[in-house]
Amino acid sequence: MIIETLSTFPDMFTSYMNASMMKRAQDKHLLSFHSYNLRNWTNDKHRSTDDTPYGGGPGLVMTCQPIFDAVHDICHGICTPRNPYYAWEGEKPVHTNASDAKIVFLTPTGVPFSDALACEMCQCERLLFVCGHYEGIDERAFELADYQLSIGDYVLTSGELASMVVIDAIVRKIDGVLGADDGVCDESFVSGLLEAPQYTRPAVYEGRSVPEVLLSGDHAKIKDWKIRKSLQRTLEKRPDLLDDINLESLDAAHRNYLHQLQQRHS
Fold first, then answer.
1. How many percent of the chain have pLDDT more than 70?
2. Residue 136 and residue 110: Cα distance in Å, rounded?
3. CATH code for 181-265?
4. pLDDT at 182
5. Of the CATH numbers 3.40.50.1110, 3.40.1280.10, 3.10.50.40, 2.40.10.340, which one belongs to the domain with range 2-171?
6. What average pLDDT does the chain have?
């Protein structure tokens, strides 16, 4: 998979993309990552990427011209300098198959990002994340978007931070990145439920013991315990998730257990 970012602060991605899972994915050639500086596509002496909003209002709005030009050039692998006053800075576009590229904008007005979207997007050949900053982005730039995503009902300083969240969720879904498919399948939200509690050594810490069933070695009992705890935790912490799960995917015993829990909490 190819993941690219377009940003006024491309260095924000450097440490993140060169550590842990992201580095391993690139070392395994499962991920190719490139980060481009939006200022390369400005056309003035100040390399401006923002301006005051029409109609008034606080802050500055990112202008659409450099975004349109950058997305076109990146998708087609064009690296001809656009700004006559400055030399190119940072990485240059190298991938030329524009038809493979899906353009992603992170915006508070976007569709809420979810595990289901991460699964969908990890099937894409190429994703280009356009990172906003300041007060927002000129609305006309969103004409380029294949995805407009929001990661929550709160405000961040930059789209770079939000993009990292989405990229992380997508990359861990790529086959071979984690190296343990069962681990991905058991994670919270994958099944529609929150994950069961997890424990590791020591078995007892200052009087706090790990549940005996997890030490039993009986895989059937452990699986049953995890499903029951997952149902209980979801009902207690995120009952809204139960509205979207297919209860028929649970066996009769677990459906009955959930019904008992719901009666107890009603």
1. 96
2. 13
3. 1.10.1270.20
4. 46
5. 3.40.1280.10
6. 93
